[in-house]
């Protein structure tokens, strides 16, 4: 009790973490500070991530790609350690965390969980090293929250499969070497591992975004893409396959959104101490302190929730509905923290000299991808009532 409260860790969250947890977090934090933070505002303003392949290789070298998976060159980290890494990545930029999430929790997880041994050996070591970038094709132009209605289809032609269709809002699409694509078949929805140099596959990049601007976002076009028989995941059928992957990605968001929130709160707190109005620092006004207190409260409650869910995932007891609790709460609170932080900076809050407006814009995408607010509310509502209100 002899030391002052740490305003960056007021509840002593770090005391819950092991030395290995802290080492993972600090490694990712240091890498982001060195390789991303000096450039991210310019990348965002320009609407591009110009060194994405180089960054992917570096992320592979520090073990951040597919880090919670085991074998095949993956780090085998705990779920909590993966979550801590997501916080640091998104504190730099949501687009960077999306790159890592899609690579590890969607594309790599799909192959690791549902792929054949040959598919795992062919793709996972290169993806873990960042030599191969992956993407995940589920969302379609007309079917976002309702993937069961997808129109992309795969039909047998002899021993081959022929894929046709379109996918939309695909992170990493135009820089990927492999795509995991979900399609309707006569046996239900199935997953396919598609090398992106296959004839008929193209991934035009989506431009003119107001959010996730430092992220590669693409459409996937499949025009008579012919694949061999062994390109399909051998066993999984139906939505069980893609939804299991989405649950992994949503878990990363539970943590990651808090990184953006932390960056905004710390910027606002430091600004309030140095910025003077009416003869004293902004931090000396009651309304400013009320905002900072409320934001700190929600940020640290979110961290405790994420940590709890991470421990459940490590114990093998985490349910999809519980992930919905985390995604719904933490992203909703993160975007409110970003908006409130902006008010403390006043007009300066919209300048890219500070990260707040960039984070706020990014969080608008995080709020709705991997399940909108409404979808997670209905997942929780069904769990509470037993009534399915989706249709």
From TrEMBL:
Which family does the UniProt entry place this protein in?
Belongs to the acyl-CoA dehydrogenase family.
Superkingdom assignment: Bacteria
Record domain Acyl-CoA dehydrogenase/oxidase C-terminal: where: 237-384
Extract the GO molecular function terms from the UniProt entry. fatty-acyl-CoA binding; flavin adenine dinucleotide binding; glutaryl-CoA dehydrogenase activity
Any coiled-coil regions, as ranges: none
Q: Keywords for this entry?
A: FAD, Flavoprotein, Oxidoreductase, Transit peptide
Cofactor(s) listed in the protein's UniProt record: FAD
Query: What organism does the UniProt record list as the source?
Result: Streptacidiphilus jiangxiensis
Task: Domain (Acyl-CoA dehydrogenase/oxidase N-terminal): give its ranges.
Answer: 18-131
What is this protein's name?
Glutaryl-CoA dehydrogenase
Quote the SUPFAM superfamilies the UniProt record gives: Acyl-CoA dehydrogenase C-terminal domain-like, Acyl-CoA dehydrogenase NM domain-like
* A Gene Ontology biological process term: fatty acid beta-oxidation using acyl-CoA dehydrogenase
Identify the InterPro entries for this entry.
Acyl-CoA_Oxase/DH_mid-dom, Acyl-CoA_Oxase/DH_mid-dom_sf, AcylCo_DH-like_C, AcylCo_DH/oxidase_C, AcylCoA_DH/ox_N, AcylCoA_DH/ox_N_sf, AcylCoA_DH/oxidase_NM_dom_sf, Glutaryl-CoA_DH_mitochondrial
Task: Give all residue intervals belonging to the Acyl-CoA oxidase/dehydrogenase middle domain.
Answer: 135-225
């Amino acid at each position: 009790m002899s030391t002052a409260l740490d305003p960056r860790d007021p509840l002593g969250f770090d005391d819950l973490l092991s030395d290995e947890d802290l080492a993972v977090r600090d490694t990712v934090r240091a890498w982001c500070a060195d390789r991303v933070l000096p450039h991210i505002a310019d990348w965002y303003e320009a609407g591009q991530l110009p060194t994405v392949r180089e960054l992917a290789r570096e992320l592979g070298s520090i073990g951040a790609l597919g880090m919670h998976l085991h074998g095949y060159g993956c780090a085998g980290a705990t779920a909590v350690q993966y979550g801590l890494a997501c916080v640091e990545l998104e504190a730099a930029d949501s687009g960077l965390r999306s790159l890592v999430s899609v690579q590890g929790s969607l594309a790599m997880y799909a192959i690791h969980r549902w792929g054949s041994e040959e598919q795992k050996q062919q793709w996972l070591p290169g993806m873990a090293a960042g030599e191969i970038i992956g993407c995940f094709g589920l969302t379609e132009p007309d079917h976002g929250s309702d993937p069961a209605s997808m129109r992309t289809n795969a039909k047998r032609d002899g021993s081959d499969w022929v894929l046709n269709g379109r996918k939309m809002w695909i992170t990493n699409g135009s820089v990927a070497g492999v795509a995991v694509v979900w399609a309707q078949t006569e046996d239900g929805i199935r997953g396919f591992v598609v090398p992106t140099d296959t004839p008929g596959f193209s991934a035009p990049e989506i431009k003119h975004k107001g959010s996730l601007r430092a992220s590669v976002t693409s459409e996937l076009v499949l025009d008579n893409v012919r694949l061999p028989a062994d390109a399909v995941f051998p066993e999984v059928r139906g939505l069980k396959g893609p939804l299991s992957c989405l649950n992994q990605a949503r878990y990363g968001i539970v943590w990651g959104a808090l990184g953006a929130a932390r960056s905004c709160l710390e910027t606002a707190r430091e600004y309030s101490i140095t910025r003077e109005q009416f003869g004293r620092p902004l931090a000396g006004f009651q309304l400013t302190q009320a905002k900072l207190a409320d934001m700190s409260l929600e940020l640290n409650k979110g961290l405790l929730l994420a940590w709890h869910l991470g421990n459940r995932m490590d114990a093998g007891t985490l349910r999809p509905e519980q992930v919905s609790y985390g995604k719904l709460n933490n992203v909703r609170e993160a975007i409110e923290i970003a908006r409130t932080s902006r008010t403390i900076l006043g007009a300066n809050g919209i300048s890219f000299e500070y990260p707040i407006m960039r984070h706020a814009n990014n969080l608008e995408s995080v709020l709705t991808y991997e399940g909108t607010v409404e979808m997670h509310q209905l997942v929780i509502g069904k769990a509470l009532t037993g009534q399915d209100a989706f249709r």
